[in-house]
């Protein structure tokens, strides 16, 4: 009988950014980071291990993927096969409810869901902390999508202790308005941009040092539920990260004209007494951290510049979980 599991993982948005690796093989970061898991953006993944399979196969959004994409998935699943001491091949089916490679952290939910499904399908029973170290090997930010709410990725000292830990459930009127400026694939991938910045930007060492203070300060703000301070630290940290890219050789930027429009709109709302703060990952899309109770007001202001389909309101999301029978049935995954 095949070993099968179906898991949902939500994406996350870093408030204290992960930008730079000190170890390319094990995806060890240059600094600790902190994120908020998002309810609206997620990936559902089914993994089936079966002795009848002669090779791995990978389907994304119903389409069979080529050799390059499948090899990447196979390499990741090998981590779980080695743990289980099995050579069983797998079929992976993944439905991404996040635009891929557009700076909306699709890889975070994708590899967290794949890690969770592989763990269950092989009966490994890895605890969440250890599972996060496995997810990290697919995508650094995936380590944080194992948990819900506010999550810290402790940089650690080695592969075994570089893992995510839950910080707070974020259930205190926290929300986010996502402005999907451009959902196309990026010209400069996150991995290439990150590597170039680390190796060539003179601003980068100072950013790493400031991030160490930022994460301590933001955890203090979360502990006291100080939303204003939370937002100020979030915005400043993100802006500093993007500043490091302008110092890279050659310099690059993920910003587009509409990114600036969204930022200016948030700044104008702040002057009107509505606290909201922007952050951007490696892409042009803008995320506006706000009180969930004021998200609709912020969206209305953004609708003056963006169409309805470009705006997503989300509350904090939860950690990974198995899909219910009804959820599996949507994809015909109950067989």
UniProtKB/TrEMBL annotation:
One of its GO terms (biological process) is isopentenyl diphosphate biosynthetic process, mevalonate pathway. Its EC number is 4.1.1.33. GO terms for molecular function: ATP binding; diphosphomevalonate decarboxylase activity. SUPFAM superfamilies: GHMP Kinase, C-terminal domain (SSF55060), Ribosomal protein S5 domain 2-like (SSF54211). The keyword ATP-binding applies. Residues 9-164 form the Diphosphomevalonate decarboxylase-like N-terminal domain. Keywords: ATP-binding, Lipid biosynthesis, Lipid metabolism, Lyase, Nucleotide-binding. Belongs to the diphosphomevalonate decarboxylase family. This is diphosphomevalonate decarboxylase.
């Amino acid at each position: 009988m095949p070993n099968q599991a179906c898991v949902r993982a939500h994406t996350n948005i870093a408030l204290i950014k992960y930008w730079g690796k000190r170890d390319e093989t094990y995806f060890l970061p240059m600094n600790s980071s902190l994120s908020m898991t998002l309810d609206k953006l997620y990936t559902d993944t089914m993994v089936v291990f079966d002795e009848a399979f002669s090779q791995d196969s990978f389907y994304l959004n119903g389409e069979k993927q080529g050799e390059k994409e499948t090899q990447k998935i196979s390499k990741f699943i090998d981590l779980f096969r080695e743990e289980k001491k099995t050579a069983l091949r797998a079929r992976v089916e993944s439905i991404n409810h996040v635009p891929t490679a557009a700076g909306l952290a699709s890889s975070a939910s994708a590899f967290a869901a794949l890690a969770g499904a592989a763990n269950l399908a092989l009966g490994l029973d890895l605890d969440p902390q250890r599972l996060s170290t496995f997810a990290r090997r697919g995508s650094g930010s995936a380590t944080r999508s194992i948990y819900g709410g506010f999550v810290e990725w402790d940089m650690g000292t080695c592969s075994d202790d570089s893992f995510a830990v839950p910080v707070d459930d974020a259930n205190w009127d926290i929300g986010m308005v996502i402005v999907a400026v451009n959902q196309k694939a990026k010209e400069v991938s996150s991995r290439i941009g990150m590597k170039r910045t680390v190796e060539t930007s003179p601003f980068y060492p100072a950013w790493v040092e400031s991030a160490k203070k930022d994460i301590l300060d933001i955890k203090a703000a979360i502990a006291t539920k100080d939303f204003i301070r939370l937002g100020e630290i979030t915005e400043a940290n993100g802006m500093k990260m993007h500043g490091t890219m302008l110092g890279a050789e050659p310099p690059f930027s993920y910003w587009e004209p509409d990114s600036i429009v969204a930022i200016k709109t948030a700044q104008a709302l702040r002057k009107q007494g509505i606290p909201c703060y922007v952050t951007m990952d490696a892409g042009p899309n803008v995320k506006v951290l706000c009180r969930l109770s004021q998200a609709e007001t912020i969206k209305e202001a953004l609708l003056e510049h963006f169409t309805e389909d470009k705006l997503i309101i989300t509350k904090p999301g939860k950690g990974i979980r198995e899909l219910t029978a009804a959820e599996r049935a949507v994809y015909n995954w109950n067989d």
